[in-house]
């Protein structure tokens, strides 16, 4: 198979730092906002450092950087124009969230304050990054430069296609990053408030551990949406152009999932695994282990991306870790987790209601199958992904299932 864009061992080292840092912050009762920032840094800094020092990712051709140009003088007008474009992108994103109530106001206010503090601290590093990278870019007039020129009224120099690509990437980041940060802070708050659950029996401990794993996963996701950098070869190569791909993806997230899975396809009657199994010590212990394992697989599949996790974007092909065994281990883990935590095949309203809940959860699983298909269509434009997916037709763990259902086999049809 094609070589993975990142190293499994480097990413696992970053994950170990994240787990250790989060554990320490919970023990010390560090405020959730500060803990969230620490988690992001604990994962991102070791990986970025090791990838640059060991893998030399900054010298890859895919970065669009040519380090033989490092002695070129800085083009300050061009850098200033890029910074103008970046400021407009950030400001537009903030204004949209201020004007349009996509997420709960209180949560977004907290996330906005936290983001403003971080941005203020990071401003010197952002300027330094632009200065360093601009000097070695093969095509230094990137989307930020074209947006900055458009703002300056110099439309004769503007390439609208580059602005569209930049806007699509910011649409993804601007939509997903705020709510993921809100989820992360809220999950950390629950962990700190419920730390005593670890000593409250295996059911309580499992509920706490799933939140712990979720916090780690959310921290990695926040890193992915934030660090779209050429220096680490984690920039956005392309954004999924398929409208139906966007629809099935957005259906899984707020505010749209309140209608899709919260109302139209509501498969849970409010009774969960710990309610059904609280009086079954052996079965509940086995169920707890299965739950934690499914969530650990989910976390492993997310951590395998390192700095590159993101919905709806192509930022390099991952072929190692759990992706060596199947193309979509994250969606498989999520689907298993949904079934394990809600147990839709049991219902206090009787077997008919249980059957309905199972069918509804099956439709949720179908949405994730469509998401997988949309990603494959998008990534098929990259020859490395096509080679990887074709190899998985022959060596993936679901090859026997694809033999029975040929529609599950990958076919290279670029979007």
Structure description:
The chain is mostly helical and 415 residues long. It has one domain (8-408). The protein is built from 15 helices and two strands.
Average pLDDT, to the nearest integer?
93
- What does the main sheet amount to? 2 strands, antiparallel
Name the shape in a single word: globular
Distance between the termini: 22 Å
* Total beta strand runs: 2
- Helicity level: 55-70%
Please tally the helical runs, counting DSSP H or I stretches of 4 or more residues.
15
* Beta-strand content bin: under 5%
H/E series: HHHHHHHEHHHHEHHHH
Total domain count: 1
Give, in spatial order, the strands making up the sheet with the most strands. Answer: 1-2
Poorly predicted runs are: none
Reconstruct the topology from this structure.
Blueprint lengths: L7 H21 L3 H24 L20 H24 L5 H32 L6 H9 L8 H34 L8 H25 L11 E2 L3 H8 L6 H8 L8 H5 L3 H23 L9 E2 L14 H14 L8 H29 L3 H13 L3 H6 L11
Antiparallel strand pairs: 1-2
Helix pairs in contact: 1-2, 2-6, 2-7, 3-4, 3-5, 4-6, 5-6, 6-7, 7-11, 8-13, 11-12, 12-13
């Amino acid at each position: 198979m094609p070589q993975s864009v990142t190293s499994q061992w480097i990413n696992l080292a970053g994950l170990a730092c994240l787990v250790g840092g989060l554990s320490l912050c919970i023990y010390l009762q560090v405020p959730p906002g500060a803990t969230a920032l620490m988690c992001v840094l604990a994962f991102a800094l070791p990986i970025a450092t090791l990838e640059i020092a060991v893998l030399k990712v900054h010298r890859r051709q895919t970065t669009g950087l040519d380090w033989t140009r490092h002695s070129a003088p800085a083009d300050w007008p061009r850098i200033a124009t890029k910074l103008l474009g970046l400021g407009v992108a950030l400001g537009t994103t903030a204004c949209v969230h201020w004007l349009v109530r996509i997420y709960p106001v209180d949560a977004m206010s907290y996330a906005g304050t936290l983001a403003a503090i971080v941005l203020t601290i990071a401003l010197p590093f952002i300027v330094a990054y632009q200065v360093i990278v601009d000097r070695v870019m093969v095509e230094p007039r990137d989307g930020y430069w074209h947006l900055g020129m458009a703002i300056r009224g110099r439309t004769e120099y503007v390439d609208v296609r580059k602005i569209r690509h930049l806007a699509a990437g910011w649409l993804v980041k601007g939509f997903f990053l705020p709510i993921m940060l809100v989820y992360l802070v809220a999950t950390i708050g629950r962990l700190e408030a419920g730390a005593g659950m670890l000593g409250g029996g295996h059911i309580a401990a499992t509920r706490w551990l799933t939140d712990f794993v979720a916090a780690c996963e959310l921290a990695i996701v926040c890193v992915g949406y934030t660090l779209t950098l050429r220096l680490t070869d984690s920039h956005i190569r392309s954004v999924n152009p398929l409208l139906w791909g966007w629809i099935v993806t957005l259906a899984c997230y707020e505010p749209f999932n309140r209608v899709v899975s919260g109302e139209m396809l509501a498969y849970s009657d409010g009774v969960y695994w710990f309610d059904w199994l609280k009086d079954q010590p052996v079965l509940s212990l086995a169920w707890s282990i299965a739950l934690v394992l499914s969530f650990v697989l989910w976390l492993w599949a997310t951590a395998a991306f390192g700095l590159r996790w993101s919905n709806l974007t192509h930022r390099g092909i991952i072929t190692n870790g759990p992706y060596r065994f199947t193309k979509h281990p994250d969606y498989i883990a999520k689907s298993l987790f949904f079934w394990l935590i809600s147990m839709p095949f049991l219902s206090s309203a009787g077997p008919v209601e249980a059957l309905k809940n199972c069918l509804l959860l099956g439709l949720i699983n179908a949405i994730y199958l469509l998401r997988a298909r949309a990603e494959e269509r998008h990534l098929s434009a990259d020859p490395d992904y096509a080679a990887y997916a074709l190899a998985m037709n022959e060596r993936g763990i679901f090859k026997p299932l694809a033999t029975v259902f040929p529609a599950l086999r990958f076919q290279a049809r670029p979007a």
